[in-house]
Structure formats: C-alpha cells, structure tokens
Known about the structure:
Elements: E1 2-5, E2 20-29, E3 44-48, E4 54-61, E5 66-73, E6 76-84, E7 96-99, E8 105-110, E9 116-121, E10 129-132, E11 142-149, E12 155-163, E13 166-175, E14 180-183, E15 189-190, E16 196-203, E17 209-216, E18 224-232, E19 240-241, E20 259-261, E21 274-277, E22 283-291, E23 294-303, E24 306-312, E25 335-339, E26 342-349, E27 355-362, E28 371-374, E29 387-388, H1 392-395, E30 398-402, E31 418-426
Antiparallel strand pairs: 1-6, 2-31, 3-4, 4-5, 5-6, 7-8, 8-9, 9-10, 11-12, 12-13, 13-14, 13-15, 16-17, 17-18, 18-19, 18-20, 21-22, 22-23, 23-24, 25-26, 26-27, 27-28, 29-30, 30-31
Amino acid sequence: MRFFKNLFNRPARSCFAEGTYSLPIGNGVSSNRINVNIFRHNGITSYTDEGGGLHVFACLVDSDGRVNIYQDFRGIVTSKTVFEGAVTNDAHNSPVIAVDGRGRIHCIIPFHNRKAIYMVSKEGLEDAYCRQSLPFSDSFSLTYPELYCLPGGDLVMTVRNGKSGNGDIHIAKFNCEKGRWTAIPHPIISGSGICSPYIQCCTDSKGRFHISWCWRDTSDVATNHDIMYIRSTDRSLESFTNSLGEQCSLPVTPDLSPIIQEIPTGSMLINQTTMCTDDDDVPYISSYWREGDVIQYHILKLDGATWKKYTLPIRRTDFVDSGVGTRRLPIARPFVFCYEDKLYLLIRDNERKDRLCLVTMNKEDPAEGFELKYLSKMGMGTYEPVADPTTMKKDHKVRMLTGVTEYSTDNREIDISKGQFYILTFDPDGI
C-alpha cells in the first residue's frame, strides 16, 4: 500500500476556480477517456464510518495497466493497486467502484465486449482484495458495468450483454448482510437483436431503482433515438412500472418502449441519460440533442405522470456526430444531481474553451433563471464529469475525479500517455 500526504494542503489555483479545493492523488491514462468516462458509476465514491468519518475513494488506470484505488481521509491519501493488466487503449474499459454498507470496496474492471474482472476488499476498510466471480454467465459479451448503492448498504450491478446495436441489460443485487450477489435470471431491457439500450440509473429514498435509456439501432452513434424510463416497484428489483405506474412486462423491448421523449435518429442524441432523484423521489434526466439548428442540453422532469422538457439555452452551435467507435466530441455528456430545492448540471463545452462548468437551476423550472459558473480556469481537453454528489448530504460538498484528458476518434494514439488527476471538492453555493 502506498501512503503519502498533501504536505502543502493547498489547491492548484492555476487549474481550478476560487472556492474549490483540488487534492492531487496520482497519475493516470490521459490519452483517452478511460478514467473520465461518463458511464463510470462510480469512478469516485464515498463511505461514512461508524465514527462519522468520511472516506472518499477514487479509481484510476495508469499507463502500465494498473488499476489503483485511492482513499482520501481527512487530506491523507493512501492507494492500493488492486489489478494489473487493464487494457488502456480502449475507453470502454473504465473500472467502477462502490462501497457496501459494511465498508467493503467492490471494483469491476471490464474488457470491452468480453469479460470483466471483479475484485472485493476484506471486511471493513482493509486494503487486501480478492478476486471473485461475477453473478452473470461466463458467456456474456460484457460492457458498461455500473454499481449503485441502495439505502441500507446493499448494491445493484448493471451490465450490457451484447454489442452496440444489439444488446441486453442485466441486473444483479448484492445482499450486504449475506455478502452475496443474486442475478435476475432474465434481461431487464432487451434490444431483441435489432438495437441496444444505453442506460443510466439512480436510486431513491425508498430504495427503488430508476432506469432511463435511449435506443441505438446500429453501431453508428447517429442512430440513437428516443428516451425511455422505468422504475422498480420496490428494492427487490423484481418488478418495474412505467411513468403511469403501469406494470412492465420484462424484458422491456423496442416494440413496447415506455417512451417519455421522442427524439428521431439523426438528432445527435448522445448515448447517455444521466439521472437523479430529489428528496421527494422525483426523477430528473439530462442529455443533449439537436432541436432546430443547435445542439443543446435538456432536462426532463417527471411531474405527476407527465414528463416535462426544459431546454437550457447555453449553446449557440451545431455539430455532427456520426460513425462507429469512440468519438471525439466538442462537448461532454452531462452529469445531473439534486440537493434540496436546486438542480445542478456539470458540463464541459468547447464554446467555453473546454472549461469545466457548473449550471445551477431551480428544480421547479430548470430553464428559468439558471446560473453557469466555471469550476476550472483552464481547458480540460475532452474531459467528462465523474462525480460523487452523495457527499452533499454529509458536508454540503461535491467530490469529483478530475484531470485534463485528450483523445482522438476511435482511440488513435496521441502524445499524452499520463497526467495528474485530482479529487476536486467544492460547495456549489460557494463558487
């Protein structure tokens, strides 16, 4: 285990805005998005011990293929290499982490459209990890593993089996008390061999699991279309309903899609639907797509049984996103979170010199009177937000995994192999 302390205990003021604190943790791959992929749920997470101490964990892949987990506890950083042999030249191979109710750290290291490695720490906050089997078939062609925490300490794992344009979503639940996973024996969402769902999820105070997604018809990103939504009836994840409370037949398929926002193919809808719930368990979804001749960020909010769309007039330009593989995009996919009466969006846009931005909104009407502030003084390259907003309820601060990254379309090599990454901490009301 490596151990060091930020001796100067000061932010990198040349990089980030006043009112933020940046703690350097280590070097990681910067030549693609493997460390700052929007699908990294989670790239950074936290755990509160029995004494009330807040432990923040971040996961990085370095240029030698080592997967390192860093712990920040009261400004002292420790790190542990939990796996060696990650494939670093494919941004789909982003590892994800979560901490269960007993403090065990779970880490999944995927290998695009193939397998995944699953590592778990010992009881408590020990730094010894052991390899375990995933709760899915070894025959799965696995991509996009994600981990979510339920109230009480249980976990949910989601994975895609298949490939772009032809995939299914599977779910498993971890019982913290028993220390074991149970997989639902059928897909929750199935592309039926004709398309693939791209999901994002969140949980609410009742332990219900909310899922939103778009369909993609082929491997071409331009065939993304429509946004769908379902939620579990309870924390068992055995049954799901649509926005009207009507029971869904599982798996949900394209011919029975619970569409909440119609978006035609060719609209430059990105394959991501970041989401959150507020204190009243109302879900919010954000993505970007073209309306008219400008690509804008949009917010979807469930109001009773009806979804309302709010368009943020932040951008002025259009762009074309078409083709297969990893694309180099002028804007980042957004990250949405909520706290009390406010809704927040983290973005990065080349119209704003690729600086990291925080958009603050009134959750009752997100498009009315929003405010945009910069979190970085410099451009972040092609960075996408990787954040842990759950600490807002602990000390009213957000933690992010940040670092300047750059990449070219389809992961072609460029002359940046490694860079410094930080845990960026800020109070959204103090920027």
